[in-house]
Amino acid sequence: MRLKTINLKEPLHTELVSCVGWASSDDVFSAGDDHVIHRWNLVSGDTAKVTDLPADFHPTDMHWIPKAGVAGGGKKGGVADSFLITSAEGKLQLVGKGGRLEKPVDAHRGACLTGRWSWDGAGIVTAGEDGAVKIWSRSGMLRSTLTNQGSPVYSLSWSPDSQQILFSTGTNLTIKPLAPNSKPIVWKAHDGLILCCDWSASNGRIISGGEDCKYKVWDSFGRQLFSSSAHEYPITSISWSTDGELFAMGSYNTLRLCDKIGWSHSLDKPSTGSIFKISWSPDGTQVAGGCGNGQVIFAHVIEKRLEWKDYEATVTGRKTIALRNVTNESTENLEFRDRIIQTSLSHDHLVVATTSQCYIYTTKNWNTPTIIDLKEGSVFLMMQASKHFLVVEATAVYIYSYEGRLLASPKWAGMRPDALSKQTVSISIDCLAIRDQTDDKQVHLFDTSTGKPLNDGKPYLHKHEVVEIALDQTGLPNERKLAIVDKNRDLYLTNVRKFGKTNTTGKLGAMIQSLCWSQDCNMLVAVQDSKVTVWYYPNVIFVDRNLLARTLVEKDSTEFGKHAVVGSFVNNSIGIRRADGSLVATGIPPYPAILHQYVRSGHWENATKICRFVKETTLWACLAGMALAAKQLNTAEIAYTNLQEADKVYYIQYIRELPLKEVRAAEMSVLSGNYQDAEATLLQSGLIFRGILLNIYLHNWERALDLAVKHRTHVDTVLAYRIKYLERCDKEEKNKQYLQYMNEVEVDWDKINEKIEHEIQKERDNRPQRTSTQKPAAH
What domains does the chain contain, in order, with CATH numbers? Predict the structure, then answer.
């Protein structure tokens, strides 16, 4: 991937260009010290003067109102309502559509160095030489002075939720919340004066550059993720792309394209002087820069490479894609009428979005694609599943089938599609998961076939802020799992669809940097602090938590280095991107995937055979969990036997001999640790005695007595077991409820044993034709 730079014409500006901004994906506005605002159209190549600025107005920064903040924004071919310009004379100027100048606002003493709209378009923040950071209304009315620093503030940016401000003073970066009396986060970021910074709305990371000639990447806590080597000249401009996957850096005669981790994709050396401002197009494919020699430099991203099994697709130009089959070296060249915005290659389909249409190719036929007309013509993100794919535009989210049929367009409160990223969106064959943009603890879940919310419209609520989400790709809809990485970098697994009262969330690991589900079976890989971990059967955490450590493998991550990212997990091959940009492949044995395939198709004998053939503990542990989840008692008994889990083998044998299937199902839930589900199963089946006995064995004494009193049965049985328990523990009764019923109810073990025998006989009478007369055993 690299930037291809172009200069459309000779310089229109006679002085340096201090600021640039994108009105739409094809229109760029620029302003400089010659007091003129020019408009550039990248499709036609036309340029025009928009308006003249006052002679005493020297622009320092420009920012267009985000589409999310424009009423009715995002219409194809439309231009945003207005943009702001700050000046060296301390003024804030709002410019309307067509170049109409509003009344200027005296914003700062000395130069007003920078200004930015909030992401929702509801407010403006400015900073200047006087060290003040001020918040303004949309119309330019002063709301508050956020802070007063002792030195000039050269750059600032809004947080993704528009509730915090990042700004630079000297060698420090500061994150200041808008809430009063909130403590700011301050850290020394550079050894020289910081000239530029930016905060991505999509990935939440911060970039900065300064006079120490370095650019650096930070997380939202101020922890350094990457530091470049020193350049020849100071870093004068830096900016994130819309999707947060790339950022561009400008210096003297230097334009560099970087990955979000920090490593460099490409380096260009245009003869432009210093690049004072860099701005990305709304679709994240083009860059414009204001230069010291009066030029406006333009560049677009090319040579983006995609891989899927035997196929490789490379974006070779603005409107062309080269395809190659690596097995037989056959090639195809695809040409499009409009400029390419987004591409995605997965699940045997290539999806290409241009400025007006979406093309769907299958790997079996590259000649006749299915074509869809886009609603807005500005695609921010595309993701694929096996049966359909997701398209995210500026104001809406769409799910299409590979036949080109619109399946759904999910909506939720406070939706901001332009802020979505690959980390906050995940799609599977039957479910779409999206992290809420206003509350990072919530994850919205939708049915992909209808677009309706799951679980009665209630989003999943996590206890901490969610950083990354991922849905598994295979299996039945009612078994769909969502992997969640929260702000503490802990990894959790939860059921997408809620059934019963089971605790549906379990913790898999900690210190997670990146994760990815296998596309062929439900295995999960993650890069942890010092290792790469593969969970062969993550669902075991809901079946038998004790098996979790035996169903995973860990590899030393020394060869991958720090800040490695999992790029793909197909078949038994895992692709990992190192912090220096190199792609490293590592593999796992093929047997876990084969085991998943046998179990998914119901071939339990073959699953047992492959475990016996391989003779590995991890496979037996996976088979034990899978059999327990599917209630295959014979297979589970064999697997636990090979794991030398004698207690569970005996318990499975006991379960097999129970008279009623409802009781067996409840005992299976007990074996999995799902006690609430076990009780619910028994009570729904009318087996009140079994429900009471379950709580007695679990020492849930209050619940056992409540059930007995509510159903008016076996109160004396509960009291008898309670007395025996207290005698064995040498304790006195202190529970008021038990003391009350002990004074009212007579405890006679002969009558109690007779009642218990009567309950067991009732179960025998209702059982299928079997021969066992074994009594309930203690858990």
Answer: 2-302 (2.130.10.10), 688-779 (no CATH)
